[in-house]
Specification:
single chain; 179 residues; alpha/beta; 7 helices; 50% helix
Length: 179
């Protein structure tokens, strides 16, 4: 239905779950892929499988909580492919505990990954996209950020709070649309 041939996409959390499915869809449309995750080995297998679709792939280790690692991933993407057209912010984590039981460390890990990581990757990739006068950022979110969870479905207060904070996406889109 659409053609992304020659375009380059980074998919964070690209070695598992939704990240793999997003990467598959992008590859089927012809996009070259950079898959990154804290666990590089999960991305390597996915990259190998997706290369069979005729696209170029690159697997990188990258912790989205680290601006230095994000910058290195974007720099390596630009070195390898010469451009960055699409960022899929998919990395995420949860800390399953009741609201009164979430540890400060667990809360911080979720916020640093699910909220800060999305912003940092958007900011760093966005700079490259602004320089090349275009690009798209796709942020994977959750309804839990709007309505939370009900009853015993999941103990994920930190996850819900981080995903609720992710509504800065709309503000970011409005600001960058003017550029």
């Amino acid at each position: 239905m659409f053609n992304l041939k020659g375009q380059v996409a980074i998919v964070t959390g690209g070695g598992r779950g939704i990240g793999v499915k997003m990467a598959e869809g992008l590859a089927e449309a012809g996009a070259n892929l950079v898959l990154c995750s804290r666990k590089k080995e999960t991305c390597e297998k996915t990259a190998w499988d997706l290369a069979k679709l005729g696209v170029k792939t690159l697997a990188l280790g990258c912790d989205v909580r680290s601006p230095g690692e994000i910058q290195a991933a974007v720099d390596e993407t630009l070195r390898e492919f010469g451009r960055l057209d699409i960022l899929v912010n998919n990395s995420g984590t949860n800390w399953g505990a009741t609201p009164e039981g979430v540890s400060p460390g667990g809360w911080q890990k979720v916020m640093e990954t699910n909220l800060n990581g999305v912003f940092l990757f958007s900011q760093i990739a966005g700079r490259a996209m602004i320089r090349q006068k275009g690009g798209r950022i796709i942020n994977v979110a959750s309804i839990m950020g709007v309505v939370g969870t009900e009853g015993e479905v999941a103990e994920a207060i930190a996850y819900s709070a981080a995903r609720g904070g992710d509504h800065f996406y709309e503000d970011l889109a409005a600001k960058w649309a003017r550029i």
